[in-house]
Design brief:
single chain; mainly alpha; rod-shaped
Amino acid sequence: MRKSPKFSPEVRDRAVRMVFDAKDQYPSQWAAIESISAKIGCTGETLRKWVRQGERDSGVRPGPSTVEQQRIKDLEREVRELRKTNEILKLASAYFAQAEFDRQLKK
């Protein structure tokens, strides 16, 4: 069971914006991330992941955006459901084919 997120999407967006805005005030992006993560109460690694995803969403960094990741997740769920449905239909058709075969033999 997944834990509910500790930080709201608004807090995440604000923290990422703060890192983007403060990049000139620190010697490195990591220094900005460490400083801002301490202020909002998350770990530096958590904020770094948020920043990397924000960079992908804005097109600065290559990789799937949040929207694309959600679409992939939805499509994978749909594929799983379709495969399960296909398996059920195969079993049902085999059952009815066997029943039809048995009925023809009894005549």
